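Each field is listed here:
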Amino acid sequence: MSGPARGGAGSRRAPLAFGGWLAVIVGVYLLLGCLYAVRTPLWQAPDEPAHYNYAAYLAREGRLPELQAGDYPAAYLEELKARRFSPELSIASVRYEAHQPPAYYVLAAGLLRLAPEAPVSEQLLWMRLLSVALGAVAVVLLALLARRLFGSRGLALGAAALAAGNPMYVAITASANNDALVVVVLGLVALRLSAPPRRRWTPRASVLLGVLLGLCVLTKLQAYVALPLAAAALLWDVLVAHELSWRQALRSGAWVVMAAAIVAGPWLVRNMLVYGWRDPLGLARHSAVVVGQLRTATLLAESGLGAYLGQLLRTTFQSYWGQFGWMAAPLPERAYLALGLLVLIGAVGLLTAALWRPGWLRRKRRLSAQARRGVALLVCWALLTLASFLWYNLQFVQFQGRYLFPALAPLSIGLAYGLIAAVQRPWPALVAVGAVGGALLTVGLLRGDLPLFSLALCVAAACGLLAARRLPARWRWLAPYGAGLGLSALAAYSLWTIIPTLTP
């Protein structure tokens, strides 16, 4: 193979080609991210005023804030959103993120201290650009992880393109919040856990892993999936790979726990002194403060389980790809239809590859031990993130796809893998697309209203699969690249047509 698809590890040109294509992907992301940071109106990202106030307080006072009653002015916050944060309305009272771990805010406060007298709009822009830089690092880590696990440049670059082009990922990582740092620290942990066996659990490596886990604790609750993920990796190496004895595992685990405790312990102790020894994360205080935020029990009582689940699935899917502002500015409905077909094809391709695995990652049909461990790592990572998302939604109504971004790496790698597999063995995906088209046609005939655009999408997808199957093998790797390019174009479209509608 030639171009970015080739995985030749021994070639001197391979690292240069991989780095060059990755630089292009990251460059497109940085361009879009900076434009979103500049063009998005002030405070038009979820929780942005509260994140800014946390960083500004830390920069001004030199100490962490305390979450207190009144920091979530529910009625006033609804007025702010309804009036699109009109400039004459102050956001000073919106402080409900004060319980969050401090890592991102320490970085942001350092930026704010460089220009303490700058206008708020300028300070907010610097915080947004910090998030953009972190988002770019996360994309690089994703690509490096995919290549380390599967030895494939094509898969790594395809996954990076899908992640970097996601309009919602671009928008969220171009706003002032700690989401991008979550993706970065989880990517670092995953790279550490995927190191070669001989360098995975040495004392130095275990201490480094513990430091990274401590940073996860200091970043955001969604990053805590790294803790059971690390434990699962250690157990895998003992029980499945037989690379460690129980004595070695306990010794390595002790190093990890000690390093993590040293990094995160002071903040946890501080929280116990502030919020009480039973509330080291400040979550109980947060639940008591956010009076007025819609609770899951309330929505279930009002709408019923069926309507609740329908809203959960629909809104989460839409907001994973693009629902801007405070979830008030969605993409066009037709865009979601196209994205739904993309995900369907990728999911069917992934399932097909799992049942009848093609030999496109390795010449041998059987996955290497490293790749099998990598698949287990990614699956566990995705499931833990999903469990965290569902747990949060058991308490509050938070149907926001961005809460799945901690699993951006496994989701993007899985989608890229599935798209490539679907192109190489298209018949199962064609059957799925045909079934969707048939169902749409039947419902349309019964209702007397044919969904012509949806049917045209199905036909186009089927034609695309058939046409891609006839391409030379080296060009079939372009499936995730093409999808990533399409997502980047959708992000650019949203920047010029949807984001301006958020202006007061």
User: Anything to note?
Assistant: The first strand starts at residue 323 and ends at 324. Residues 1-12, 358-364 have pLDDT under 50 and may be disordered. The chain is about 70% helix and 0% strand. Strands lie at 323-324, 329-330.
